[in-house]
């Protein structure tokens, strides 16, 4: 079990690094979108390449961060019934869900999407829009994203079993602190206070 828990920690480290790196793609997508909109308004010029880049960035965030989202226990849960059950029963439900739903479904999508990517890569598939981008990088995101999600599912499964055996904490308890929305709101408020304090010092 210790070897499996070590594997789980390694998987979590990879997904954590990917998740943190992907957050910068959100900023890049906003900058691309704002620049594209500004150029279109000021110069009446538009580019399919820039529009498609926005879609690619959004797809990268959505797919590559799925494993990180599972690691942080941020996927939407509807625990109307499970919340009334014992913690041990909830862990067994987690194990059942990962084994019979998450891993098979994600593994199948990963398996089927690989030929989909390879066909685009071998043929150097281009966008059907004039001036658009090549398609294979976007299609590569599908198997890579689901691979990260499958690995995160395996890690979650190991931690659930480890928790039942009393060898690690409950993996669903990563949410011990404030929610991501609360932390973001606090960060925005803190930056606003710093700007206000700086403006007062300037006067």
From TrEMBL:
Domain Tripartite ATP-independent periplasmic transporters DctQ component: 30-159
Key words, A-Z: Cell inner membrane, Cell membrane, Membrane, Transmembrane, Transmembrane helix, Transport
Principal location listed in the UniProt entry: membrane
Cellular localization per UniProt: Cell inner membrane
Keyword Transmembrane helix: yes
Membrane topology: Multi-pass membrane protein
Domain of life: Bacteria
Pfam families, per the entry: DctQ
InterPro entries: DctQ (IPR055348), TRAP_DctQ (IPR007387)
Positions of transmembrane segments: 53-71, 91-114, 134-157
Quaternary assembly: The complex comprises the extracytoplasmic solute receptor protein and the two transmembrane proteins.
Function: Part of the tripartite ATP-independent periplasmic (TRAP) transport system.
Entry similarity comment: Belongs to the TRAP transporter small permease family.
Name of the protein: TRAP transporter small permease protein
